[in-house]
Amino acid sequence: MRTPAPIAPAQGKLGVLMPGLGAVATTAIAGIEAIRRRLAPPIGSLTQMATIRLGKKREGRSPLIKDFVPLAQLDDLVFGGWDIYDDNALQAATRARVLDGHHLEPLQDVLQAIRPMKAAFDPEYVRRLRGPNVKTGTRRELAEQLIQDIADFKAKNGCDRLVMVWCASTETYIEPGEAHQSLKAFERALDQDDRTLAPSMLYAYAALKSRVPFVNGAPNLSADIPALVEMSRELAVPTCGKDYKTGQTLMKTILAPGLKARMLGLNGWFSTNILGNRDGEVLDDPGSFRTKEVSKLSVLDTILQPEIYPTLYGNISHKVTINYYPPRGDNKEGWDNIDIVGWLGYPMQIKVNFLCRDSILAAPLVLDLALFVDLARRAGMRGQQEWLSFYFKSPVHEPGTKPEHDLFIQQTKLKNTLRWLRGEELVTHVEE
User: Fold this and answer.
1) Maximum Cα–Cα distance across the chain
2) What confidence score (pLDDT) does residue 283 get?
3) The pLDDT of residue 247
4) pLDDT value, residue 181
């Protein structure tokens, strides 16, 4: 393993730009504002609450992650973004109905000041939403407008660095095409106004062109197409994704490794969700649901390795559905029926009913990813950051390899990367 490069200090303001100033983004912004005003604890955030063990267990060294690696301070964060609706962040948060009024009232001043820039939007990619706050132009013109937005935001807010964290909707399912295979082909497609370039790709392109790290919080094809992977490596800009791991899939990446660790078999895993927020409305479209379905279905095969354990996992029936149910709002409910197999083939069942809050679980991920991808940029890291797979349903990975979905292996990889960046011994849990 190569020696880590020196990490540039986290000096000055860090701008966090978010495509999609809806429920997830406004919950993250409001939460960070509340935390830095000492109005609430940062529950769910590794960067703020987790410790990291250093050296041998007997040494007793376990500092907070935020004290171990040079992360940007919460007081240095500045927020902005784009949305197809022109509501300011307070109006958007109120409309989303995630946070109660007593949480929003002390933050009115800062939330009202955050107004979305016009979004690059194509209704063919998100068919259930329409809004007035959108840009016009060809694909090339939209990309250039986004690049200008980034430059203007940085100058206006006096930011030293920027990151972009996707918080917008799931786009309709597409497969990589000719325009996505190389940077040259991608830029030619921009000039030809090729509609196979999804809006999320335009944001990713604009971020990379501006030397801004890009985080993909949705299952869209964005920065993980060959063209933008090439661009991120050439320009030495880190990217990561995709699709925040929050509710039902989080439970799968906790439970499935446990079943495999004990060599318990699995016949089937039936999952259904009810969700009533804007994400639920978008996913009510079959094209957008297909994008999400692919992300959700990939988890079990990778964790359970049926090719290695065909007797235990070679014939699993895995079903996932999402149902749009407006009365539930952001309070998503996930039901799982898990048919497992024990000694001598005797069947057993596990039932999980996870009544979760979608944006409450996603908000700390937005914070952690913004801070970690900024750290990666200052450490000279480039391309896809597999060590951040811990946060995603469908982690990016090198071609020819499989993604790692086991939450506990992902956590070890994340913490070992932080140890490596600071020149500490990697922890293998084998004590001398």
Assistant:
1) 68
2) 66
3) 87
4) 97
Nearest one of 121, 119, 200, 208 to 162, comparing CA atoms: 208
Give the domains, in start order, of the chain with CATH numbers: 13-244+360-421 (3.40.50.720), 248-355 (3.30.360.10)
pLDDT of residue 324: 87
Distance CA 258, CA 362 (A): 24
* DSSP secondary structure string for all residues of 292-320: HHHHHHHHHHHHH-TTT-HHHHTT-EEEE
What the block records as the tokens of 108 is 């009115």
Q: Which two tokens stand for residue 338?
A: 């898990």
Quote the pLDDT of residue 182. Answer: 97
State both tokens at 352: 């999980």
Quick one: 156 exposed, middle or buried, by C-beta within 10 A (0-12, 13-18, 19+)? exposed
> What whole-number distance in Å separates Cα of residue 80 and Cα of residue 164?
10
Q: Give, in degrees to the nearest 5, the angle at Cα 134 between 394 and 88.
A: 85
What pLDDT score does 299 carry?
86
Sign of the dihedral defined by the CA atoms of residues 417, 418, 424, 426, in that order? negative
Query: Are 404 and 413 contacting, i.e. CB atoms less than 8 angstroms apart?
Result: yes
Tell me the CB-side half-sphere exposure of residue 215, using CA atoms within 13 A.
29
**Buried b or exposed e, range 69-101, using 16+ CB within 10 angstroms:** bbbbebebbbbbbbbbbbbbbbbbbbebebbee
Cis peptide before 242 (omega within 30 of 0): yes
C-alpha to C-alpha distance for 262 and 404, rounded to whole angstroms = 19
Say what the pLDDT of residue 323 is.
Answer: 87
Looking at residue 268, its pLDDT comes to 97
Hey, CA dihedral for 397, 165, 193, 185, is it positive or negative?
Answer: negative
**Angle formed at CA 26 by CA 143 and CA 40, multiple of 5 degrees:** 140
* Confidence at residue 430, expressed as pLDDT on a 0 to 100 scale: 65
Mark the ranges of the chain whose per-residue pLDDT is less than 50: 432
